[in-house]
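From the pipeline queue, job 12 of 40. The input is one protein chain; the requested action is below.

Action: predict structure.
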Amino acid sequence: MNDATENRSARMYLLLRDRHAVPITDLAPERLKQSVKSKSESLDVPIRHTTALNAVAKGLGFRGGFPGYIRRGYSQVCAFLEKHGMRQRADLFSNSLAFAHCFATREALSGRLFHSGKSLPRRVFLATDGFDSDIFAPAGEAFHHAPHYRRMSRHELEARAETEPRALHLLIARYHWQAAIPHTVINLLGDAIVDPSLGEGIVYKLYWESDYDPCKQEQEREELRASWVLVRRALEQSECGWIDVLPFNDNLAFLCGRNGAYDFVFRNLRSTPPPPLPCHPHLDADDVPTALWRSQGAMIAADYYRLDQWRDQEDHLAEEHYYATGGRVRRYPGWASVKCAYLEATDRSSALPNCQPESCPSGFTKVVVGGRLVYASQLVTIGQFRRFAERSGYLERRRSVTRWEDANGDPEHLPVAVTWYDAQAYIRHVEETLGYEARLLTRAEYRALHPGAESRARNRVTEGCVQCYHGDGKPVTWWGVGSDYGPIQFIARFKPDLPWRDGPGGVRFLCSDGFGEWLADHEGTFAAAINTRDLGGMGECRDMVDLSRFPADSWGSYQVCKIGFRVCF
């Protein structure tokens, strides 16, 4: 097989199970071996090279693993290409139209062919392979090349369009082609750019708020439909732009263009490399709580790895669901929230816990914050965290330069000191145990529950509740900012007579300049850690108080303090 477009075709990734993705540039066995060597690695479930090769062969629809592909499968592919006159590999998805992104991508076509449940089309329009794009040119540009049509009325152009392709192009350019058509009509959800038609008509990616006038909705649909009827007629008259779809097996299809050019798509195809998982590489995916999966970037990652889903249709239905259930354009929460809400409403997110418990779980305190009911736990203790870690094996897979044991040699009933990532792993454990979505407190919730700020201590080492020690066992007696203080790893223990105070509903707080609590707010590798005494930041800089940002991979060591956390629903 001749691969003339290796760099472009490298945009195809074959998604395997356990969060592995293999870049597919060619179907030759040696190329597949190279692809497997450069696959994305899942830190959760490593995969051996031989296992990955067999998985790739199976993912492409071949039996007998990779050895079977070498013996029989690849020769069958070569014979199939020769039979259908496919001689030269080409990128049949590349075109120069300004709205090229509106036409089918590799991933969109893969979804339609392998994940929609619809019968396969004989051909699909990709606006490439020599297609004359004058049909989509602005009216002025189009009439510049055919000035004798300029004087014709709309009625005359419509009459000529029945028999003259050029007149049809000009009719579309002057009266029908509009910016809304590419974005709302050109898709693979219906019959717009496939042949033969399944009788489903056009699927409009056009969304209205629930109280929008139904008559106006129908009018807008009809205007688009009438315009697309003319556009489709022009497309069908074109000898170029249509690509034949030739299925090879249940997981692989070839696309045949002109002059022997061909391309291919496969099941579970992705057009981009894998996005980073939430908290990667600090947490395994199974240690990430639901709240973090709901963020935009995290939802993109979670959605990327979902196998055997027609994601284009899901995204479309999610938008319809958002507006049908009262969503507003001005309050649009973002794609991640819209998609999550749809998956939950249609029972497609069974792995996600329920949003909230029906009653206060054992060990939590019911409090009202800003008119909202919050179930908040006391500070998680060393004993609670240790039992979670022993049952789940978390400490064995924990990825941190700070040692958990250095901060937690105190009696088991005292608050645990952990990194922000450790806290997230514990919260995921709580979700799995109780079946509800859990999280850390927000800054606003924490301030509302706290019994009240006090003045900042003058010296955290002497006035705080934590005593730190050097590695040789000598107590830390002085602490300041220096160029080398960051990497220092102290051992920390609580002092006697800890300063406890009660907040609303009996929620207890250890209020000291030497102790902080992790909050839900985070950005990148930093998270909010609030000083439990003055409610400022845990850092030494006053201008950081409002941000409260702290390295998420520290339990407070280099700031001679401890940082704990509590869980809430």
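Job complete. The radius of gyration is 30 Å.
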